Each structure stands twice: as C-alpha cells, then as structure tokens.
Amino acid sequence: MNRDLDARPSSLRHLATVAAAAACLVGGTRLAAADGSKELRMATLAPSDSGWMKVLDRAAADVKKQTDGRVSVQYYPDGTQGDERDVIRKINLGQLDGAAVTSVGLSMIDESIRVLELPMMFDSVEELDYVADKMWSHFQKKFEKKGFTLNDRGDVGWIYFLSKNKVSSLSDLKDQKVWMWGDDGIVSAMYKKLSISGVPLGVPEVDSSLTSGRINACYGSPLAAMALGWGSKVKYMTSMPMSYAIGATVIKTDALKAIGEADQKTIKKITKNSSKKLRKQIRKDNADAQKKMKRKGVTIVETPPDMEADFRKAAEQVWKDLEGKVYSKQELADVLKYRDEYRAKHKK
Questions:
Q1: What is the pTM (predicted TM-score) of this model?
Q2: Is 6 inside any structural domain?
Q3: Domain for residue 4, yes or no?
Q4: Cα–Cα distances in angstroms (integers) from residue 221 to residues 86, 97, 205, 340, in the given order
C-alpha cells in the first residue's frame, strides 16, 4: 500500500502539527491516475503498528490485488489527519474518501448508532454481537441516506478506567483529573450523572496530558492504552468496564460510485471479511495487552459492588435521558429487546 506521510512522529504527542501538514498534502480533489485507476484516501487514529492497521493493511492489499490495480487504498494512520471530528469534516469537504473510526466518529454522521455502545448495557461480547448483528442493517440504511456507506463492525473492546492513583471507589474517581473525549456525549452524560469533572481533550492530546499532569486518569481498552502509549503512564486499571466500544469503516458513497460496479462488490466482500477478522484479532490482542500491562506493573483494582451499583444506576438513567436526543425510543427498546432475547436463550 502507498503511504506518503512517512514524516509522521512515532508517538501521538505532536499530531496537531503533523495533521496540519498532512492536510496540505491530502487536500483537494483526488488525482486520477493516467491508467484510470482510483485511490481511496482513508484516515484513522489507529497506530501504524497496531493490530487494527495490520488487518486494514491486509485488506487494502487484497483490494489492489483483486481489482487488478484498478482500485488502491491509502491509509493515513496515527491520527495524522487529526481527531475523528477533523476526519469526518475532511471527508465532507472531499479531502478524504473515508475513515476507520470509533463510534464517536460514526456519531458525527448519525449519532443514533451510539445506542449500541451505552454504558453498562452488555455483560458479554456475545450479547453485543447478537444485538449489533440484529440492528446493523438499520444503521447502514441511515448512513446511506446521509451519503455514507457503513461497512461491517470493527472492534475497540471493553473500556476501563486507567489511572496513576488507585481508584477503588466512586469518591476516588471524582478526585482524579479524568480525561473525557470532548466529542463523546455519552461519556459526558455519565460523568455529569456521577458528578465527575472531566477534562475534555481530543484523543491525540491524551498521551502528552498524562505526561504533563494535565490529567492523571483516562479510559480505554487495554490494546488502545498500550498502542497509544497510555499504558506506560498509568499504574492502575479498574476491573469493571464502563462499556464496550465498537467502530467501523465508512466511505463516502460518491467515492464508491466512481468505481466500477464489479470492483465495488469486490471491496464490499473484502471489507466484510476484514471486519470479521478484525473483531477476532482485536479481542485476542486486548487479552494479550491486558496481560502485558500487568507484567509491566499495572495493577487491576477490583471494583467494589457499591461502585458498580452506582455506575449501573447512573447508566440506566442516562439511557433514558438520551432517548429522543441521541437515539429514538424505538432504537433503545430494540437494543433492550434483543439483549434480553439473547439472555433468555442463554440462561446459565
């Protein structure tokens, strides 16, 4: 795969500067090759050497091979195109064709998809998979109406609190300077309900803010924490996950329409297979990353029942509060219906 941004930094500390430079290189209309081949320009926060990029790179290679070079995919990893809000804006401006984003990025196209990522909603990945599989086509249709093709689900993983100081109660958490992704309305609603004062930052700012002391706690999956460098700056992780984070690749529909129909079908098939591989790979990588964090001295703090109960109570209130604002009453009802349907079928 072709990448033109080899001047990117090895960490995310200087991404703001690099993002501005990269925008100049990528901006403007896509240049058509002399042989008529098409290039899809895709951005992602995923680090270039991460499990996410390994799967995406393989898929990109498959696209080029199986279309006999008529279509190529160029990824800009490491957040070099900015945070996900920047990336979605650039897609809408025609400076990028698509992106591999988390649900926060997806929510900037259609916020209702966040109903699949509500805090304390699922007890297992099997529950999530069952519900998401039932509802994914619903969201694909909504995205299509907004000019985007929503491919199959990717994976981020269970989201835990990570901190420099031990957090064994809600009171402890309130005492931390906790990161809050500025574009994440659901986490913001949870923090407000729990009286936690979050420090709003973009993902590219978290690493340097942990180093400088601007924040001393954050949240993420074990794999994300290790890949983004956060894991080396914290000492503790809660045993309780707050939610399960998902993502997906989106492509501007107009960009796909510029590609031949047969090649579109090839891309769709490859991305579908890639998504399945990605979920399997990332789940394994998250388990491995958690073990690695423990070996490097991060202590898993057992979350006491009363703290978990406080989170569950707040979460259920947030589910209701966001109904009609972020997602519809029917969408929340469907999530609960399918989740309970799965539980009824798999009673222990």
A1: 0.86
A2: no
A3: no
A4: 22, 27, 17, 25
C-alpha 97/C-alpha 99 separation (Å) is 7
User: Could you report the per-residue pLDDT of 96-152, keeping only the tens digit for each?
Assistant: 999 999 999 999 999 999 999 999 999 999 999 999 999 999 999 999 999 999 999
Token pair, residue 32, equals: 């058509």
Q: What is the DSSP string of 184-197?
A: -HHHHHHHHHHT--
* CATH number of the domain where residue 264 is located: 3.40.190.170
Tell me the one-letter amino acid at 244.
Y
Q: How many residues does the chain have?
A: 348
Residue 124 CA to residue 167 CA, distance in Å, equals 23
Q: How, if at all, do strands 236-238 and 299-301 pair?
A: parallel
The DSSP code for 270 is H
- The number of distinct structural domains making up the chain is 1
Q: Which two tokens stand for residue 18?
A: 């690099």
Which is nearest to 57 in space by CA: 46, 195, 67, 68? 46
- Structural domain harbouring 77: 15-345
Task: Dig out the tokens for 29 from the structure.
Answer: 């209309």
Closest CA to 98 of 81, 115, 119, 111: 81
The total of other beta-carbon atoms located within 10 Å of residue 27's CB is 12
Whether 5 is covered by a domain: the verdict is: no
Does residue 124 belong to any structural domain of this protein?
Answer: yes
Q: Which residue has the tokens 């957040």?
A: 79
* Residue given tokens 């796909």 in the structure block: 256
